[in-house]
# Entry
Amino acid sequence: MRPWDVLAITYAIRNLRRAPVYALSAIVVLALGAGANIGAFSAVRDLVWRPLPYPSPERLVSLFETASDGSPRAVAEANLLDWAAQAHTFDSMAAYRPRSFGLTFGDTGAPTVIQTGQTMATFFQVAAIRPALGRSFSSEEETAEAHVIVLTDRLWRGMFAADPQAPGRVVELNEEPYTIVGVMPAGFEFPMGDVQPDAFIPLSRRDYCCGRTGSLSAAGRVKPGFSLDAARAEFAAVASNVAAIHPATNRGGSAGLLPLSEAFTASRRESLLLLYAASSLLFLIACANVSGLMLARWMSRQRELAIRVSLGARGRQLAAPFFAEAAILAFVAAALGLFAAEGIERAIPRFLTGVPVPPDLDGYSFAFAAVLACITTIVTASAPLLITRRASLNSTLKGGATRLRGAFAIAQIALSVALLLSAGLLLHSFLNLVNADPGFTTARAWRFGIGIPERRYDTEAKEIQFHQRLLERLAALPDVSSAGATGRLPLGGSPGSGGAFQIAGAGIPPVERPRARTNVASPAYFASMGIPLHRGRDFSWTEDRPGGRRVVIVNQAFASGFLRDRDPIGASLELGWTSELNPRNSLWEVVGVAGNTRQNSMDRNPAPEIFLSMTQTGADGAGYVIRARDGRGDIARVIAETVVQFDPRVQRVHPTPLVTLIERNLDSRATAIKLIGGFGAVALLLTAAGIFGIVAFLAQERSREMAIRMALGSPTADVQRLIILQALRLAGVGSSIGVFGFWWGSPWLRNQLYGVGRADAATFAGVLALVAAVAVAASLAPSRRASRTDPARLLRES
# Structure
């Protein structure tokens, strides 16, 4: 560092100490913009760009079957076994699925519900990660359906206190003994949809082998020396060959692959990039705002600059103080921005499902903060330096600075309009979702989930009896009006199992049959949920017995889509559903038509759904719904105590209000609105400050003109109007540019909207009116100051 640079830094520090309000304002503004951008960058890098934490992650791929229209679908294990046997470009392939279990260990009392990954033994070869303790399970153990379990480090430390002797000990999953054989290393994660498993157990060949109806996810590892394109080509050929051997279940379809990193991040990529784009707009607005502040400060130091130029200061000597002052502000703001970034990180788990813990600020985040500080320094210091080099220190220079400050104000307005339009459309979408009909009513209703221990309830008949007895006991409670259960409650966040079916006698080949979501419901479930029955009747414990006439209830979407040309009541369906009591292709009679519910999320329209009766098919787990007679009493405690009294060995239940289904589903959107709306609010405040600064400066420049006007008899209202119109012209130009920029860059926003288009007139009108109102508000004080000036005094001084 040269002596002149040291002198420039010392000089800059002294000047900033003399102007603490200016320094503090600039630091706060830059810290807000930089903090938002650092937090969003860290989230995008950690959750989208970071390489998967497995050896050679570029060779990992997600495998899927494709339907005749090319859309991806779940994998059948029998198909996967054939692919693995014939493909030569793969080291290994594995299928997996998530499933919850009640885990009991020693004298822990009631079971603890954990998420397991049911996997093939080759799963650990695909991930290429060995257990830190013990071993993984083998293919022989998988085939024999051995009861073995591999713990994650998280579960090992939380439930087993990091006991190094844990391998070899026995735990119970749904009251079945499982031997711990290994513990995965710390940090090992393998998301299965929105679920992060706590442990891994063998995938049941009894449940998933031998059939070719897909219900699993799958991954593979490509051999070294083969490109993904080569693996993709061979994989497609192998899948076509398997389809040719088994045409009845693979007709019209094939298979495909994607890099596993893309498959893991696809659901969160668009949302995070939206967050990063919004934070970048806020950062640019902050830079433009501080650049305007620096220009104003520079204009107040014209005499000093003129003296320095007259003494021969040129080039580096003239630029150094500008850059030193800007660098001090930028780096201090970036350091403070790291604290703001922590707040953004903590909001990420609520912004995205499937992210259990916030991303961490790491070395890359600190490096990015330093880069932002350098960019901020260059942007904010270049403006006054550019004016200084291109103009002499006179009125020409002054005019250039005025034009540049106006450009900064317009830029702030344009960026704010783009950000506010995005936030406005997202808010409009959110309000549409809040007001959308979920298909059920939540007043006085409670829900909880429960799993049945397979060891004691090892037949469908026992499962049916369990649900019937528990529901009857709950319905008999004094404060309860009805109690019901279902396999999957609405708004579950996943599509559920889509089963193939046909109208009886249609003669459609199995692979070409339409598919509909298949669910299970108990008697009184629809009444407990507040779902109307538009036609027919409800299920009955007495009429709909196992082995008797099989019955189903369909929703309106199914009836209007597949039974619109006939009376749905009495229609017979042939389902692909199979179980102990119900052989494949059994006939099921439609006895009722229920109202639609939103099964996956509030922003997706109801899909066709078939409800089987819980009186005729078992369920090893269910979502219970209890509707109270009124809102009085501690109904949640009574429900929990009743379940414990009914069977003390099942996991403890924690009833929650049914409305939480909707709240949880909308939580990520609400968080997005808060984050992006907060960015928009800060941007609007910064824009107001920018407009105020430029209007006040322009009013001061035109003070002599205003004095002459008032001396000639112009009313003060006319003088104020001139200043306000000047602010509105700035707002109009900036808003026009902002609308154009938003329209050019907003197609990526389309998937985030519900019930509103990106050209929504109400949102555009509201944002533009808001910006105009801010412009008027920001110009009121300068206009009043200009109108209250004494013309005679001002003319004498000038």
